[in-house]
Amino acid sequence: METSKRILSLLLQRGVLIAVFLLLWWYAAGRLPSFVLPGPERVFYAFNGLVHSATFLHDLGATMGRVFSGFVLATLIGTPLGLALGSSRALARFFEPILAVLNTVSSAIWAIFAIIWFGISDATTIFVVFMTAMPLILTNVWQGAQTVERQFIDLARSFRMSRWQILVKISLPSILPYFFSGARLAFGFGWRVSLVAETLGASDGIGYRLRQAADLVQSDQVFAWTLLLVALMLLLEAGVLKPLERWLFRWKTPSR
């Protein structure tokens, strides 16, 4: 009963927030030219046109495929590197300047390099997503590996536990919250920078359609694509990432 009330209250709050946002949007759109700020009704019709267009599913699938490919690649490379740096101070000191450089270079610069190296192709966007997400995952896993209690590892070794058992039963529970925090951040950044890469170096995808609409001054379509991106991110956050986080860390929830 208490959970139902909490969910109902949250839905009511979200509904009020959306209503206020739409009201302010409608008010501002009525006082500005439509090519500067199209109204909600016009954007809705543009969104409906996008959804029913022949290329909508292809563009959506192309963008999501590139984002997930770059993110998975970043996870597969960043996680073991973070574990290696966390387990060796010598390696950490040696590679720390390189990691600082990777975190400093902006995604726009990586996009320019990617266009030079890969041209107009899927590899351009995948590379930009990878170079944005990988340092975030690596850094968080590295920090998580440093929090593992050394005395627990020594105790496990005294019981002759294998390295795999130590990793799964001792290291992983300590590292997982850091990894998940970095992965969520990396996925969000990767999703956004993919649009930058597609704007500069792609012939399809959401970023390409956004550039096309902007070039033709089709502001309603720009807003429609933007609202679609926001809706997708909220859906992934509420429908996938948060439930997965609750399931992974259910052992932290105190029993009543």
UniProtKB/TrEMBL annotation:
Membrane topology, from the record: Multi-pass membrane protein
Transmembrane parts of this sequence: 7-28, 67-86, 98-120, 126-145, 166-187, 222-241
SUPFAM superfamilies in UniProt: MetI-like
Subcellular location: Cell membrane
Cellular compartments per GO CC: plasma membrane
PROSITE patterns associated with the record: ABC_TM1
BP-aspect Gene Ontology terms: transmembrane transport
Predominant cellular place of this UniProt entry's protein: membrane
Domain ABC transmembrane type-1 per the UniProt entry, residue ranges: 60-240
Source organism, top-level taxon: Bacteria
UniProt entry tagged with the keyword Transmembrane helix: yes
Annotated keywords: Cell membrane, Membrane, Transmembrane, Transmembrane helix, Transport
Pfam families named among the record's database cross-references: BPD_transp_1
Similarity annotation: Belongs to the binding-protein-dependent transport system permease family.
Identification of the protein by name: Nitrate ABC transporter permease
Naturally occurring in which organism (per UniProt): Halotalea alkalilenta
